[in-house]
Design goal:
Blueprint (H helix, E strand, L loop, with lengths): L1 H26 L5 H77 L6 H15 L6 E3 L1 H11 L2 E4 L2 E6 L4 E7 L4 H5 L6 E5 L2 E2 H4 L1 H8 L6 E8 L2 E8 L1 E4 L3 E6 L3 E6 L6 H14 L4 E5 L8 H9 L5 E8 L4 E6 L9 E5 L6 H11 L3 E5 L7 E7 L5 E10 L15 E2 L17 H12 L2
Parallel strand pairs: 11-12, 12-15, 15-16, 16-19
Antiparallel strand pairs: 1-18, 2-9, 3-4, 4-5, 5-6, 5-7, 7-8, 10-11, 13-14, 13-18, 17-18
Helix pairs in contact: 1-2, 8-9, 9-10
Length: about 450
Protein backbone atom coordinates (compact mmCIF):
# COMPACT_ATOMS: atom_id res chain seq x y z
CA UNK A 1 0.00 0.00 0.00
CA UNK A 2 2.80 2.44 0.94
CA UNK A 3 4.73 1.84 -2.29
CA UNK A 4 1.65 2.45 -4.42
CA UNK A 5 0.96 5.66 -2.57
CA UNK A 6 4.53 6.84 -3.12
CA UNK A 7 4.26 6.19 -6.85
CA UNK A 8 0.91 7.94 -7.10
CA UNK A 9 2.20 10.98 -5.23
CA UNK A 10 5.20 11.31 -7.51
CA UNK A 11 3.06 11.04 -10.66
CA UNK A 12 0.63 13.74 -9.40
CA UNK A 13 3.48 16.13 -8.66
CA UNK A 14 4.94 15.59 -12.11
CA UNK A 15 1.59 16.33 -13.82
CA UNK A 16 1.12 19.48 -11.77
CA UNK A 17 4.63 20.62 -12.69
CA UNK A 18 3.85 20.08 -16.36
CA UNK A 19 0.62 22.14 -16.10
CA UNK A 20 2.52 24.96 -14.44
CA UNK A 21 5.11 24.95 -17.20
CA UNK A 22 2.36 25.20 -19.80
CA UNK A 23 0.81 28.12 -17.96
CA UNK A 24 4.17 29.89 -17.98
CA UNK A 25 4.43 29.58 -21.66
CA UNK A 26 0.82 30.68 -22.36
CA UNK A 27 0.09 32.90 -19.43
CA UNK A 28 3.57 33.98 -18.49
CA UNK A 29 3.21 32.51 -14.95
CA UNK A 30 6.21 31.20 -12.87
CA UNK A 31 6.14 27.43 -12.03
CA UNK A 32 5.02 26.65 -8.41
CA UNK A 33 7.91 24.29 -7.53
CA UNK A 34 7.20 24.45 -3.73
CA UNK A 35 3.90 22.72 -4.15
CA UNK A 36 5.59 19.55 -5.47
CA UNK A 37 8.14 19.52 -2.70
CA UNK A 38 5.50 19.87 0.05
CA UNK A 39 3.47 17.02 -1.40
CA UNK A 40 6.45 14.69 -1.46
CA UNK A 41 7.47 15.65 2.14
CA UNK A 42 4.02 14.98 3.58
CA UNK A 43 3.78 11.65 1.80
CA UNK A 44 7.21 10.46 2.99
CA UNK A 45 6.44 11.42 6.63
CA UNK A 46 3.21 9.50 6.55
CA UNK A 47 5.02 6.51 5.13
CA UNK A 48 7.64 6.57 7.86
CA UNK A 49 5.02 6.78 10.63
CA UNK A 50 3.12 3.97 9.01
CA UNK A 51 6.24 1.77 9.04
CA UNK A 52 6.92 2.58 12.67
CA UNK A 53 3.34 1.77 13.61
CA UNK A 54 3.51 -1.52 11.74
CA UNK A 55 6.80 -2.47 13.43
CA UNK A 56 5.45 -1.67 16.91
CA UNK A 57 2.32 -3.70 16.30
CA UNK A 58 4.42 -6.57 14.97
CA UNK A 59 6.65 -6.53 18.05
CA UNK A 60 3.65 -6.49 20.38
CA UNK A 61 1.96 -9.33 18.54
CA UNK A 62 5.18 -11.34 18.48
CA UNK A 63 5.72 -10.72 22.20
CA UNK A 64 2.20 -11.83 23.05
CA UNK A 65 2.67 -14.93 20.91
CA UNK A 66 6.00 -15.84 22.53
CA UNK A 67 4.61 -15.18 26.01
CA UNK A 68 1.73 -17.51 25.34
CA UNK A 69 4.08 -20.12 23.91
CA UNK A 70 6.32 -19.87 27.01
CA UNK A 71 3.31 -20.09 29.31
CA UNK A 72 2.11 -23.14 27.38
CA UNK A 73 5.55 -24.79 27.69
CA UNK A 74 5.61 -24.03 31.40
CA UNK A 75 2.17 -25.49 31.89
CA UNK A 76 3.21 -28.55 29.89
CA UNK A 77 6.38 -28.97 31.98
CA UNK A 78 4.41 -28.68 35.23
CA UNK A 79 1.83 -31.14 33.96
CA UNK A 80 4.54 -33.63 32.93
CA UNK A 81 6.19 -33.26 36.35
CA UNK A 82 2.88 -33.94 38.11
CA UNK A 83 2.26 -37.00 35.94
CA UNK A 84 5.78 -38.30 36.65
CA UNK A 85 5.38 -37.66 40.38
CA UNK A 86 2.03 -39.46 40.43
CA UNK A 87 3.54 -42.41 38.55
CA UNK A 88 6.47 -42.49 40.95
CA UNK A 89 4.12 -42.41 43.95
CA UNK A 90 2.05 -45.23 42.47
CA UNK A 91 5.20 -47.30 41.93
CA UNK A 92 6.34 -46.73 45.52
CA UNK A 93 2.88 -47.53 46.84
CA UNK A 94 2.82 -50.73 44.81
CA UNK A 95 6.25 -51.80 46.10
CA UNK A 96 5.85 -50.77 49.74
CA UNK A 97 2.09 -50.60 50.22
CA UNK A 98 2.13 -53.27 52.93
CA UNK A 99 4.67 -51.24 54.89
CA UNK A 100 2.37 -48.18 54.79
CA UNK A 101 -0.51 -50.41 55.86
CA UNK A 102 1.48 -51.72 58.83
CA UNK A 103 2.35 -48.15 59.82
CA UNK A 104 -1.33 -47.18 59.83
CA UNK A 105 -2.31 -50.22 61.93
CA UNK A 106 0.50 -49.64 64.43
CA UNK A 107 -0.31 -45.96 64.86
CA UNK A 108 -3.95 -46.78 65.42
CA UNK A 109 -3.57 -49.66 67.87
CA UNK A 110 -0.05 -49.72 69.40
CA UNK A 111 -0.24 -48.93 73.12
CA UNK A 112 3.34 -47.69 73.43
CA UNK A 113 5.11 -44.58 72.14
CA UNK A 114 6.41 -44.46 68.59
CA UNK A 115 9.73 -42.82 67.77
CA UNK A 116 9.45 -41.77 64.14
CA UNK A 117 13.19 -41.21 63.76
CA UNK A 118 14.01 -44.69 65.05
CA UNK A 119 11.40 -46.18 62.75
CA UNK A 120 12.78 -44.30 59.75
CA UNK A 121 16.43 -45.24 60.23
CA UNK A 122 15.49 -48.78 61.24
CA UNK A 123 13.64 -49.12 57.95
CA UNK A 124 16.66 -47.74 56.10
CA UNK A 125 18.93 -50.29 57.77
CA UNK A 126 16.50 -53.05 56.88
CA UNK A 127 16.38 -51.88 53.26
CA UNK A 128 20.15 -51.78 52.85
CA UNK A 129 20.59 -55.16 54.56
CA UNK A 130 17.91 -56.86 52.48
CA UNK A 131 19.05 -55.30 49.19
CA UNK A 132 21.54 -58.10 48.57
CA UNK A 133 24.38 -55.58 48.24
CA UNK A 134 26.74 -56.41 51.08
CA UNK A 135 28.48 -53.06 50.62
CA UNK A 136 25.39 -50.88 50.58
CA UNK A 137 25.39 -48.45 53.50
CA UNK A 138 23.46 -45.39 54.57
CA UNK A 139 25.51 -42.74 56.36
CA UNK A 140 24.16 -39.68 58.09
CA UNK A 141 25.73 -36.29 57.40
CA UNK A 142 28.05 -36.65 60.40
CA UNK A 143 28.94 -40.26 59.61
CA UNK A 144 29.76 -39.43 56.00
CA UNK A 145 31.97 -36.54 57.14
CA UNK A 146 33.88 -38.87 59.47
CA UNK A 147 34.25 -41.39 56.66
CA UNK A 148 35.68 -38.77 54.31
CA UNK A 149 37.96 -37.33 57.00
CA UNK A 150 39.28 -40.81 57.75
CA UNK A 151 40.21 -41.37 54.13
CA UNK A 152 41.83 -37.97 53.77
CA UNK A 153 44.52 -38.70 56.34
CA UNK A 154 43.07 -36.73 59.25
CA UNK A 155 40.86 -38.26 61.91
CA UNK A 156 39.62 -37.86 65.45
CA UNK A 157 39.70 -40.69 67.96
CA UNK A 158 42.32 -42.86 69.60
CA UNK A 159 44.32 -44.04 66.57
CA UNK A 160 44.19 -47.82 66.25
CA UNK A 161 43.42 -50.23 63.44
CA UNK A 162 41.29 -53.14 64.57
CA UNK A 163 39.92 -56.39 63.26
CA UNK A 164 36.27 -56.91 64.18
CA UNK A 165 34.64 -60.30 64.60
CA UNK A 166 30.92 -59.50 64.69
CA UNK A 167 30.01 -63.13 65.33
CA UNK A 168 32.17 -63.53 68.41
CA UNK A 169 31.99 -59.81 69.33
CA UNK A 170 35.73 -59.35 69.61
CA UNK A 171 37.91 -56.37 68.69
CA UNK A 172 41.56 -57.13 68.00
CA UNK A 173 44.15 -54.34 67.75
CA UNK A 174 46.50 -55.09 64.86
CA UNK A 175 48.06 -51.63 64.50
CA UNK A 176 48.64 -48.70 66.81
CA UNK A 177 49.28 -45.56 64.78
CA UNK A 178 52.44 -43.64 65.46
CA UNK A 179 52.07 -40.61 67.76
CA UNK A 180 48.39 -41.39 68.28
CA UNK A 181 46.48 -41.03 71.59
CA UNK A 182 46.35 -44.84 71.83
CA UNK A 183 50.13 -45.14 71.56
CA UNK A 184 50.58 -42.49 74.27
CA UNK A 185 48.13 -44.34 76.54
CA UNK A 186 50.00 -47.64 76.18
CA UNK A 187 47.77 -49.65 73.81
CA UNK A 188 49.78 -52.42 72.12
CA UNK A 189 49.40 -54.52 69.00
CA UNK A 190 47.78 -57.81 70.00
CA UNK A 191 45.47 -56.30 72.64
CA UNK A 192 41.85 -57.43 72.65
CA UNK A 193 39.41 -54.66 73.59
CA UNK A 194 36.83 -56.24 75.87
CA UNK A 195 34.90 -53.22 77.18
CA UNK A 196 34.31 -49.52 76.52
CA UNK A 197 33.56 -47.23 79.47
CA UNK A 198 32.71 -50.24 81.58
CA UNK A 199 30.25 -51.84 79.13
CA UNK A 200 31.34 -55.15 77.66
CA UNK A 201 31.78 -55.65 73.92
CA UNK A 202 29.35 -58.53 74.12
CA UNK A 203 26.67 -56.20 75.43
CA UNK A 204 27.49 -53.32 73.07
CA UNK A 205 28.21 -55.35 69.97
CA UNK A 206 31.52 -54.99 68.16
CA UNK A 207 30.27 -52.42 65.63
CA UNK A 208 28.68 -50.19 68.26
CA UNK A 209 31.76 -50.51 70.46
CA UNK A 210 34.08 -49.16 67.77
CA UNK A 211 31.70 -46.23 67.30
CA UNK A 212 31.74 -45.61 71.07
CA UNK A 213 35.55 -45.54 71.06
CA UNK A 214 35.54 -42.73 68.49
CA UNK A 215 34.71 -39.22 69.58
CA UNK A 216 35.66 -35.57 69.70
CA UNK A 217 39.18 -34.44 70.48
CA UNK A 218 39.80 -33.67 74.12
CA UNK A 219 37.20 -36.12 75.45
CA UNK A 220 38.13 -39.21 77.44
CA UNK A 221 37.26 -42.86 76.94
CA UNK A 222 38.18 -45.87 79.10
CA UNK A 223 38.85 -49.13 77.31
CA UNK A 224 39.44 -52.50 78.92
CA UNK A 225 41.99 -54.63 77.11
CA UNK A 226 43.01 -58.26 77.48
CA UNK A 227 46.76 -58.64 77.09
CA UNK A 228 47.59 -62.32 77.38
CA UNK A 229 45.99 -63.31 80.67
CA UNK A 230 46.16 -59.79 82.11
CA UNK A 231 43.23 -57.39 81.98
CA UNK A 232 44.00 -53.66 81.95
CA UNK A 233 41.88 -50.52 81.99
CA UNK A 234 43.41 -47.68 79.97
CA UNK A 235 42.09 -44.12 79.91
CA UNK A 236 42.69 -42.40 76.58
CA UNK A 237 42.20 -38.73 75.74
CA UNK A 238 40.91 -38.65 72.19
CA UNK A 239 42.71 -36.38 69.78
CA UNK A 240 43.48 -35.48 66.16
CA UNK A 241 46.03 -37.55 64.35
CA UNK A 242 47.23 -38.17 60.82
CA UNK A 243 46.80 -41.51 59.11
CA UNK A 244 49.90 -42.27 57.08
CA UNK A 245 48.99 -44.78 54.42
CA UNK A 246 52.58 -45.36 53.24
CA UNK A 247 55.48 -46.31 55.50
CA UNK A 248 58.95 -46.88 54.04
CA UNK A 249 62.22 -48.31 55.29
CA UNK A 250 65.38 -49.76 53.75
CA UNK A 251 66.22 -53.43 54.29
CA UNK A 252 69.50 -55.24 53.71
CA UNK A 253 70.51 -55.88 50.11
CA UNK A 254 69.31 -52.49 48.85
CA UNK A 255 65.69 -53.57 49.21
CA UNK A 256 63.09 -50.84 49.82
CA UNK A 257 60.13 -52.02 51.90
CA UNK A 258 56.84 -50.14 51.51
CA UNK A 259 53.94 -50.85 53.84
CA UNK A 260 50.78 -49.54 52.11
CA UNK A 261 47.92 -49.74 54.61
CA UNK A 262 45.27 -48.06 52.49
CA UNK A 263 44.66 -46.05 49.35
CA UNK A 264 43.42 -42.72 50.66
CA UNK A 265 43.47 -39.39 48.87
CA UNK A 266 46.89 -38.56 50.35
CA UNK A 267 48.44 -41.91 49.33
CA UNK A 268 49.81 -40.87 45.89
CA UNK A 269 51.67 -37.94 47.43
CA UNK A 270 53.08 -40.10 50.24
CA UNK A 271 54.00 -42.88 47.80
CA UNK A 272 55.87 -40.55 45.46
CA UNK A 273 57.79 -38.99 48.35
CA UNK A 274 58.74 -42.46 49.63
CA UNK A 275 59.94 -43.55 46.17
CA UNK A 276 62.12 -40.45 45.87
CA UNK A 277 63.55 -41.09 49.34
CA UNK A 278 64.28 -44.73 48.47
CA UNK A 279 66.17 -43.69 45.35
CA UNK A 280 68.27 -41.31 47.42
CA UNK A 281 68.97 -44.20 49.81
CA UNK A 282 70.19 -46.37 46.94
CA UNK A 283 67.28 -48.81 46.64
CA UNK A 284 67.48 -51.25 43.74
CA UNK A 285 64.59 -53.63 44.55
CA UNK A 286 61.13 -52.99 45.94
CA UNK A 287 58.67 -54.86 48.15
CA UNK A 288 55.14 -53.51 48.45
CA UNK A 289 53.24 -54.93 51.42
CA UNK A 290 49.48 -54.63 50.93
CA UNK A 291 48.44 -57.21 53.51
CA UNK A 292 45.28 -56.08 55.31
CA UNK A 293 44.90 -53.28 52.80
CA UNK A 294 41.13 -53.18 52.33
CA UNK A 295 41.25 -50.68 49.47
CA UNK A 296 40.31 -47.05 49.13
CA UNK A 297 39.70 -44.51 46.39
CA UNK A 298 39.79 -45.44 42.70
CA UNK A 299 41.67 -42.26 41.76
CA UNK A 300 44.30 -42.97 44.41
CA UNK A 301 45.17 -46.50 43.33
CA UNK A 302 45.23 -45.43 39.68
CA UNK A 303 47.53 -42.50 40.49
CA UNK A 304 49.94 -44.80 42.33
CA UNK A 305 49.90 -47.42 39.57
CA UNK A 306 50.43 -44.71 36.94
CA UNK A 307 53.84 -44.09 38.58
CA UNK A 308 54.79 -47.76 38.12
CA UNK A 309 53.23 -48.86 34.83
CA UNK A 310 53.98 -48.15 31.17
CA UNK A 311 51.32 -46.71 28.90
CA UNK A 312 48.19 -48.85 28.82
CA UNK A 313 45.03 -49.76 30.73
CA UNK A 314 44.98 -49.74 34.55
CA UNK A 315 41.38 -50.72 35.20
CA UNK A 316 38.26 -51.72 33.22
CA UNK A 317 34.69 -51.60 34.52
CA UNK A 318 31.11 -52.35 33.49
CA UNK A 319 28.11 -50.60 35.04
CA UNK A 320 24.48 -51.63 35.55
CA UNK A 321 23.54 -50.87 31.93
CA UNK A 322 26.52 -52.74 30.48
CA UNK A 323 28.36 -49.53 29.69
CA UNK A 324 32.12 -50.04 29.77
CA UNK A 325 34.71 -47.61 31.05
CA UNK A 326 38.27 -47.52 32.27
CA UNK A 327 41.37 -45.56 33.18
CA UNK A 328 44.74 -45.71 31.43
CA UNK A 329 48.28 -44.91 32.48
CA UNK A 330 50.50 -42.62 30.47
CA UNK A 331 53.96 -43.42 29.15
CA UNK A 332 55.79 -41.78 32.06
CA UNK A 333 56.68 -43.71 35.20
CA UNK A 334 59.05 -43.00 38.08
CA UNK A 335 60.17 -46.50 38.96
CA UNK A 336 61.50 -49.38 36.88
CA UNK A 337 63.03 -52.03 39.14
CA UNK A 338 62.41 -55.61 40.36
CA UNK A 339 59.27 -55.69 42.52
CA UNK A 340 57.36 -58.05 44.77
CA UNK A 341 53.92 -57.57 46.30
CA UNK A 342 52.86 -59.31 49.54
CA UNK A 343 49.14 -60.11 49.84
CA UNK A 344 46.86 -62.02 52.20
CA UNK A 345 43.20 -62.83 52.76
CA UNK A 346 42.49 -59.27 53.94
CA UNK A 347 43.92 -57.64 50.83
CA UNK A 348 40.80 -56.36 49.10
CA UNK A 349 39.41 -54.09 46.41
CA UNK A 350 41.91 -51.39 45.38
CA UNK A 351 44.62 -53.32 47.24
CA UNK A 352 43.92 -56.29 44.99
CA UNK A 353 43.91 -54.10 41.88
CA UNK A 354 47.35 -52.77 42.85
CA UNK A 355 48.74 -56.32 42.99
CA UNK A 356 46.89 -57.63 39.91
CA UNK A 357 47.88 -54.70 37.67
CA UNK A 358 51.58 -55.02 38.49
CA UNK A 359 51.44 -58.74 37.72
CA UNK A 360 49.49 -58.21 34.49
CA UNK A 361 52.32 -56.03 33.22
CA UNK A 362 54.90 -58.55 34.50
CA UNK A 363 56.31 -55.87 36.77
CA UNK A 364 56.01 -57.79 40.05
CA UNK A 365 55.78 -61.25 41.59
CA UNK A 366 52.97 -61.85 44.11
CA UNK A 367 53.75 -63.56 47.42
CA UNK A 368 51.51 -64.65 50.28
CA UNK A 369 47.94 -65.94 50.43
CA UNK A 370 44.85 -65.76 48.21
CA UNK A 371 43.27 -62.31 48.48
CA UNK A 372 39.76 -61.39 49.65
CA UNK A 373 38.11 -61.16 46.23
CA UNK A 374 36.32 -57.82 46.00
CA UNK A 375 36.07 -56.66 42.40
CA UNK A 376 33.12 -54.33 42.76
CA UNK A 377 33.08 -50.55 42.81
CA UNK A 378 30.95 -48.46 45.17
CA UNK A 379 29.63 -44.97 44.48
CA UNK A 380 28.26 -42.35 46.87
CA UNK A 381 24.99 -40.49 46.24
CA UNK A 382 23.92 -37.43 48.24
CA UNK A 383 20.52 -37.47 49.94
CA UNK A 384 18.15 -34.66 50.91
CA UNK A 385 18.87 -35.03 54.66
CA UNK A 386 22.58 -34.38 54.13
CA UNK A 387 23.46 -38.06 54.36
CA UNK A 388 24.70 -40.36 51.60
CA UNK A 389 23.93 -43.83 50.31
CA UNK A 390 26.88 -45.97 49.31
CA UNK A 391 26.09 -48.80 46.90
CA UNK A 392 27.71 -51.09 44.35
CA UNK A 393 27.50 -49.38 40.96
CA UNK A 394 29.80 -51.49 38.76
CA UNK A 395 32.18 -54.44 38.54
CA UNK A 396 35.78 -53.84 37.63
CA UNK A 397 38.67 -55.85 36.20
CA UNK A 398 42.49 -55.67 36.10
CA UNK A 399 44.24 -54.45 32.92
CA UNK A 400 44.36 -57.80 31.10
CA UNK A 401 43.48 -60.70 33.41
CA UNK A 402 40.07 -61.99 34.50
CA UNK A 403 38.11 -60.41 37.32
CA UNK A 404 38.62 -61.68 40.84
CA UNK A 405 35.31 -60.75 42.46
CA UNK A 406 34.27 -63.59 44.78
CA UNK A 407 37.40 -65.61 43.98
CA UNK A 408 40.39 -63.55 45.02
CA UNK A 409 43.86 -63.51 43.48
CA UNK A 410 46.10 -66.54 43.91
CA UNK A 411 49.72 -65.35 44.40
CA UNK A 412 52.64 -66.68 42.36
CA UNK A 413 54.36 -67.86 45.54
CA UNK A 414 51.95 -69.10 48.21
CA UNK A 415 53.21 -68.71 51.74
CA UNK A 416 51.19 -68.72 54.97
CA UNK A 417 52.01 -68.38 58.65
CA UNK A 418 51.81 -71.46 60.80
CA UNK A 419 48.58 -71.86 62.72
CA UNK A 420 48.54 -69.91 65.95
CA UNK A 421 51.20 -67.40 64.89
CA UNK A 422 50.12 -63.77 65.19
CA UNK A 423 51.81 -62.16 62.21
CA UNK A 424 51.27 -58.68 63.66
CA UNK A 425 53.59 -59.52 66.52
CA UNK A 426 56.40 -61.30 64.70
CA UNK A 427 59.56 -59.32 63.93
CA UNK A 428 60.48 -58.75 60.28
CA UNK A 429 63.17 -61.41 60.27
CA UNK A 430 60.53 -64.00 61.31
CA UNK A 431 57.88 -62.78 58.88
CA UNK A 432 57.80 -65.77 56.52
CA UNK A 433 55.91 -63.93 53.80
CA UNK A 434 58.29 -60.97 53.83
CA UNK A 435 61.29 -63.29 53.74
CA UNK A 436 59.75 -65.21 50.82
CA UNK A 437 59.37 -61.91 48.94
CA UNK A 438 63.02 -61.01 49.59
CA UNK A 439 64.09 -64.44 48.35
CA UNK A 440 61.93 -64.11 45.22
CA UNK A 441 63.72 -60.86 44.33
CA UNK A 442 67.10 -62.50 44.85
CA UNK A 443 66.17 -65.44 42.62
CA UNK A 444 64.88 -63.10 39.95
CA UNK A 445 68.22 -61.31 39.59
Amino acid sequence: MDENKLEVTENSAADENADNEEQTKDGQHEPDSGSAKNGRSVSLTACIWSCIFTAVVSVLVCGIYLTNRYADSQRLAVNNALVAAEKKYQDVEERFGILFEIDEVVREHYVGEINDENLLYGAIQGYTFASGDRYMQYMSAEESKQFIDGNYGSKKGIGVRVSINSVEDTIYVYQVLKDSPAEKAGVLVGDYITAVDGTSIEELGAENATAAISGESGTAVKITVLRGSEELVLEIIRGDYEIKSVEYEMLDGKVAYFKITGLASNTPEEFKAAVEASKTDGAEKYIFDVRNNSGGYLNSVCSVLDMLLPEGPIIRWVDKDGKEGGIKSDAEFILDAPMAVIVNGSTASAGELFAAALRDYKKAVLVGETTFGKGSMQSFYNLSDGGVIKLTSSYYYPPFSDGYNGDGIVPDIEKAFEEGVDRFKVPMEEDVQLQAAIEALEVGE
